[in-house]
Amino acid sequence: MALFTEAMDDARIALKTLADRVDGIAHPTLRLGVTGLSRAGKTIFTTALIHALTRGGRLPVFEPMQSGRIAGAELQPQPDDAVPRFAYEDHLKTLAQARQWPSSTTRVSELRLAIRYATARGRTRTLTLDLVDYPGEWLLDLPLLDMSYADFARHSLALARAPARAEVAAPYLAAVASAPPQGPADETQAREVAARFTRYLADCRTERLAMSLLPPGRFLMPGDLEGSPALTFAPLDLAEETPRAGTLGAMMERRFEAYKSAVVRPFFRNHFARLDRQIVLVDTLSALNAGPAALADLERALDGILAAFRTGRNSLVSTLFRPRVEKVLFAATKADHLHRSSHDRLEAVLGRLVERARDRAQERGAALDVVALAAIRATREARVRRDGHELDAIVGTPEPGQVAGGHVFDGIEEMAVFPGDLPTDPDALFDPSGAGFRGMASAQDGDVDFRFLRFRPPPGIIGDGPLPHIRLDRALQFLLADRLS
Ligand code: GDP
Question: Topology of domain 2-134+271-375+468-484, per CATH?
Answer without folding.
Answer: Rossmann fold (3.40.50)
